[in-house]
Amino acid sequence: MIVNKPLVRKHTHEVIVGWNGHEVKVGGGNPVVVQSMTNTDTADALNTALQVKALYLAGSEVVRITVNNEEAAKAVPYIREQLDKMRIPVPLVGDFHYNGHLLLQKFPDCARSLSKYRINPGNVGSARSRDDNYASMIEMAIQHDKPVRIGVNWGSLDQSLLARMMDENAQLADPLPPEQLMYQALIESALSSAYKAIELGLPENKILLSCKVSQVQDLIAVYRELSKRSPFPLHLGLTEAGMGSKGIVASTAALAVLLQEGIGDTIRISLTPEPNGDRTKEVIVAQEILQSMGLRAFTPQVIACPGCGRTTSTVFQELAQQIQNYLRDQMPVWKNQFSGVEEMKVAVMGCVVNGPGESKHADIGISLPGTGEAPSAPVFLDGKRVTTLKGERIAEEFQAIVQRYVEQRYVKVSH
């Protein structure tokens, strides 16, 4: 017997990341959260706020911004003010490296306006000042009641910790190979920093962890071990994933394995954007990974065939693209009006071979004519053929059918 076992999430502490009454719950069995990051100059408050807005409207539930100098720290309260004016409640995470202890102390309005701080233990100062700088940032988090993500990255690993572990490893009768030692150093840095924060007074339910690397198998190995040893929510992401299909495929390959094993509470897809590219693409990819795995539902899914010699016309390709864009564009409106519409499945098929069957299995489907087939397109609702479309306005007529279906099938949300 083939059994489709439900995915069991690893239990972690629940951490609340919120702003002004709007809460995003991370861990504790809550749905996996989609996160993104801006690439604007944070000191440019207006453009940064506009990009945060775009990321939020695309579906990002938490947005991280760089806070790397005094100008950026000064801009954070104005970014938050602009977002509040635009009624964008998304929590902001401050990404600190090297000078975060100074910026949080010098600019308390920045510290208050952020909903979470991201601290990299490898970038909080020299060996002599590291403990004091780290303690200062944790104390600011306690003072302002903010959660902290302790984010270790193998490109900026604490060198003193690594050197100590290398010395200890060399003394072993059976020393670990270099890659295993690196794994252990990443995990040790994250966990020791977390427990140090608890010693300083930060509650356990204010801590999240991440250990980011840029190779798929390395990421899987590190997070499997970290998950075994950590009660804290884990943020997943393949750092420096790359551009285009390479970045998408590599991120999906790594995160899908971990998510299938129940590991991970937030995710970010670190795509390198094309010049002047749309930053929201990383949000869409994150959503599609979660939705394709059945972990979340964000927008109605379009089922479309890849095409073959039977579909030499581009009509079904164009219609599939139009419908997919239409559904995504409509979701900001629909999600506030209809409950459950994000789980709708729409089939746009290209010929008679699989077209009618796939259309019947979907909530709503259309089977377009392939090469040499009669110029008609049967439409199916809930498995039943209801009409046949012909002519030059098939796309517009099908979109109208989708709209009516949503209005009649899904329960209206009462506000």
Detailed description of the structure:
The protein has 13 helices and 19 strands. It has helices at 45-58, 70-85, 100-106, 108-113, 130-144, 159-170, 178-199, 216-229, 244-260, 281-292, 315-334, 355-361, 394-409; strands at residues 15-19, 22-26, 33-37, 62-66, 92-96, 116-119, 148-153, 207-212, 235-236, 242-243, 266-267, 271-272, 301-304, 338-339, 345-349, 364-367, 377-381, 384-389, 411-412. An 8-stranded parallel sheet has the order 8-7-6-5-4-3-11-9. It has a 5-stranded mixed sheet with strand order 13-15-16-17-18, with helices on both faces. Strands 1-2 form a two-stranded antiparallel ribbon. Helix 3 packs parallel to helix 5 (130-144), helix 7 packs across helix 8 (216-229) and helix 8 packs parallel to helix 9 (244-260).
Set down the secondary structure blueprint.
Layout: E1 15-19, E2 22-26, E3 33-37, H1 45-58, E4 62-66, H2 70-85, E5 92-96, H3 100-106, H4 108-113, E6 116-119, H5 130-144, E7 148-153, H6 159-170, H7 178-199, E8 207-212, H8 216-229, E9 235-236, E10 242-243, H9 244-260, E11 266-267, E12 271-272, H10 281-292, E13 301-304, H11 315-334, E14 338-339, E15 345-349, H12 355-361, E16 364-367, E17 377-381, E18 384-389, H13 394-409, E19 411-412
Helix pairs in contact: 1-2, 3-5, 6-7, 7-8, 8-9
Protein name: 4-hydroxy-3-methylbut-2-en-1-yl diphosphate synthase (flavodoxin)
Keywords: 4Fe-4S, Iron, Iron-sulfur, Isoprene biosynthesis, Metal-binding, Oxidoreductase
Cofactor: [4Fe-4S] cluster
